Amino acid sequence: MGCCSSCLTETYPEKQQQQQPGGALSASHLTPGVGVGGAALEGGDGVLAFAEFSLADLKAATNDFSSDNIVSERGEKAGNFVYRGRLQNRRWIAVKKFGKMAWPDPKQFAEEAWGVGKLRHKRLANLIGYCCDGDERLLVAEFMPNDTLTKHLFHWESQTIEWSMRLRVAYCIAEALDYCNSQGRRLYHDLNAYRVLFDEDGNPRLSCFGLMKNSRDGKSYSTNLAYTPPEYLRNGRVTPESVIFSFGTVLLDLLSGKHIPPSHALDMIRGKNILLLMDSHLEGKFSTEEATALVDLASRCLQYDPRERPDTVSLVATLAPLQTRSEVPSQVMLGITKQEEAPLGPQRPLSPMGDACSRRDLTAIHQILVTTHYKDDEGTNELSFQEWTQQMRDMLDARKRGDFAFRDKDFKTAIDCYSQFVDVGTMISPTVYARRSLCHLMCDQPDAALRDAMQAQCVYPDWPTAFYMQAVALAKLNMPSDAADMLNEAAALEEKKQKGGGRGS
């Protein structure tokens, strides 16, 4: 796992008001209690805060935008692709890469991205960042690993989506649209089954990419003209009522399990041929009363006159009573198996430090760091006689006070003293970062602990202790699979150093 300065200089929640669209933050903006590796952790739900990414970060995350990482090729004519990527903090992301000069004005693109980036909701695949670099325009969102509604509805292999899950999809997307409306984001461009994604638990999410246009002046719809709102065909404009029409086409998809042009569907509905409209794979497995309610809602959404269509509040109110199996997990309804996280465990023999980290025994880790003292810092700083200024003495005094507090388990004081040492910046000590990382863990601040452990790695790239501390922090952040990977990486480095006689433990 590599580390670079750019992965530690992203935008954090408490700094967002200072950051201007299109601007970048310096290392001086780093504050305790934030995440690392490409974006900040926000709140207890684990959603990443909005950030500006560097092109280098996104190239690294997507293996230089490898074709193997393309997860969506919709909008190919416009050159817009979506890639799967992984940040240095092991979080998966989706990166939408626009065609050359899709947004000529970087400021306009940044402002639009920041507007969408303010949204945070459990029904959205949230936007967590953007990148403007030369002609490049990219959006970064949470990655949804269980494909799109299109895949599960039209291209399924083992089983189609059951009726209750289709009702849940409709309800969740209505909730997402209603939330966006409440936040002043009433326009959603090209709402269709491709825009509905499923997260790791199988829950439906609405892609945040549709909240931005495909380009500054580009078309807002890329689907077949038969599915676009009639008013868009007349004037090329998207309105909130247009979004409702598109939602109606998604309801038709859920009802029929196939693409039916709205005009054809409305003819079937007026002719009372509801059963002909229904997906044949659902025969005998759905409630006629619920289906009638959904057909009626679709009919209202697809009205030619935009004024006759319901608003998002009405969508939610109509669909809420149809959720009769809310206790059943989405992954069960969707027929997927949630990938089990690997336990935090070693694949090779561990040293006392490795063993303590695998058990998350913070007391044992503390004792080892106290005993090790600063022997692992040898060679990380070469100081000349001229550098022994009063400032240097003050800095070393701050470290000494931090060491006393660390030894006495006064972890809050230790954090303050070590922070004084770090802020001066004359001497860089991986051990101080490791010690402060443990202090943050003791104070139940795992995101800040991870940040310090990664800083220790930046100073001393092959230091096993830095990786061990990251493993503990990742485990505390409920990322056991990533923690296990990091633990094994640390153990491998330790084994390599023991064989090669390198410095450090």
TrEMBL record:
<dbReference type="InterPro" id="IPR045845">
    <property type="entry name" value="BSK"/>
</dbReference>
<dbReference type="InterPro" id="IPR011009">
    <property type="entry name" value="Kinase-like_dom_sf"/>
</dbReference>
<dbReference type="Pfam" id="PF07714">
    <property type="entry name" value="PK_Tyr_Ser-Thr"/>
</dbReference>
<keyword id="KW-0519">Myristate</keyword>
<dbReference type="InterPro" id="IPR011990">
    <property type="entry name" value="TPR-like_helical_dom_sf"/>
</dbReference>
<keyword id="KW-0808">Transferase</keyword>
<keyword id="KW-0418">Kinase</keyword>
<keyword id="KW-1003">Cell membrane</keyword>
<keyword id="KW-0067">ATP-binding</keyword>
<dbReference type="GO" id="GO:0005886">
    <property type="term" value="C:plasma membrane"/>
</dbReference>
<keyword id="KW-0449">Lipoprotein</keyword>
<dbReference type="Pfam" id="PF25575">
    <property type="entry name" value="TPR_BSK1_C"/>
</dbReference>
<dbReference type="InterPro" id="IPR000719">
    <property type="entry name" value="Prot_kinase_dom"/>
</dbReference>
<dbReference type="GO" id="GO:0004674">
    <property type="term" value="F:protein serine/threonine kinase activity"/>
</dbReference>
<keyword id="KW-0472">Membrane</keyword>
<keyword id="KW-0547">Nucleotide-binding</keyword>
<dbReference type="GO" id="GO:0009742">
    <property type="term" value="P:brassinosteroid mediated signaling pathway"/>
</dbReference>
<keyword id="KW-0723">Serine/threonine-protein kinase</keyword>
<dbReference type="InterPro" id="IPR001245">
    <property type="entry name" value="Ser-Thr/Tyr_kinase_cat_dom"/>
</dbReference>
<feature type="domain" description="Protein kinase">
    <location>
        <begin position="68"/>
        <end position="323"/>
    </location>
</feature>
<dbReference type="GO" id="GO:0005524">
    <property type="term" value="F:ATP binding"/>
</dbReference>
<dbReference type="InterPro" id="IPR058209">
    <property type="entry name" value="TPR_BSK1_C"/>
</dbReference>
<protein>
    <recommendedName>
        <fullName>non-specific serine/threonine protein kinase</fullName>
        <ecNumber>2.7.11.1</ecNumber>
    </recommendedName>
</protein>
